[in-house]
Amino acid sequence: MKIGIDKIGFYTPHLYVDMNELAVARDIDPGKFTVGIGQEKMAIAPITQDSVTLAANAALEILDEEDKDKIDFVIFGTETGVDSSKSAGVYVHELLGLNPQARTIEVKQACYGATAGIQMAKGHIALNPESKVLVLGSDIARYGLNTSGEATQGAGAVALLMSADPTIMALEDKSAYFTSDIMDFWRPVYSDKAFVDGKLSNEQYIAFFSKVWGQFKEKSGLGLKDFDAICYHLPYTKMGLKALRTIWDEGSDNDKERLEENYTFSAKYNRIVGNIYTGSLYLSVLSLLENKEDLKAGSRIGLFSYGSGAVGEFFTGILQPNYRDHLYVDNHTELFQSRTAVSVSEYEETYEDTLPMDGSTMELDIDNDPATICLAGITADQRQYVNKRNK
């Protein structure tokens, strides 16, 4: 039985800052952002968007009534959840009007959370072939203004509908994974900003890729010649390319040309969104599928997932016949074209506009947020979410 990705949805907020302008404001050579790390634009979440609303908006565009009835498991991968107890997925379940006879959980392991959700979904569907599982990867990356990590912030969510006999990508059985206790990136419970040892994190990303790639080759007998593309978790778009180039010598010139060209397609969306943590790898997959129009059914795609702290995994998927018919290219083109550029000062003001930490009642103006699902405020320590279609 084939199990894999049946639909893919994506959402990012309507605001962004140009990385050239940010570099000038920080007295940094713009090339360090646009070329050095490979970022052009950075998505900015207004106060009316959080990881719940981003995920709900991403899923809203792809689910029909049959999907809503058959989804019996919601797995929300995030490292910027909104509650230490209640799953962010429960909010999304209600906002989308899903079948109440469902399991709903939140999964956390840095940027690896959505990948863990996909692997759980595979097991669930293997036991329940008629079921569908909604896997969400949603985050807002915050390192702080004028910090070394500021240029690798971002906001967005990817929604993956998993099923038997998928229309987009069937996941293969062989997978390689690795865990090690490393303090390359972390966010203590008392902080709304992440801490990162950038040099160590880059080193461990490469080291984990080397480990799981080697393990995968031993398990599967596959090599570079067997892949049409490899997609990566992209905290910034140059990171995955660095990893890919560590295995260059294993392939022919044709392999190098093919994989580097397709890598460029896979990084296009990430370049103009930024780091979305758990959704980053799957935004890369989406970017490849929507921008590389001649990628054929039957193509094998490699996927490298890395979550600092750290867990890494390498697995693969096979593109299904007529997979492009099941993508939402026009929706995503419109989403990107409708975004609004803000100045650096406006970005800083939005960044500092945060919710109260003492449970104070707060009402938010959602009229200026074009998203269908928004955070409307806080009452009695409870976040108030609104689906404008239900008003």
From TrEMBL:
InterPro entries: HMG_CoA_synt_C_dom (IPR013746), HMG_CoA_synth_N (IPR013528), HMG_CoA_synthase_prok (IPR011554), Thiolase-like (IPR016039). It is an enzyme of class 2 (transferase). Keywords: Acyltransferase, Transferase. It comes from the Bacteria. Residues 2-164 form the Hydroxymethylglutaryl-coenzyme A synthase N-terminal domain. SUPFAM superfamilies: Thiolase-like. Its EC number is 2.3.3.10. Residues 175-256, 259-352 form the Hydroxymethylglutaryl-coenzyme A synthase C-terminal domain. GO terms for molecular function: hydroxymethylglutaryl-CoA synthase activity. Belongs to the thiolase-like superfamily. HMG-CoA synthase family. This is Hydroxymethylglutaryl-CoA synthase.
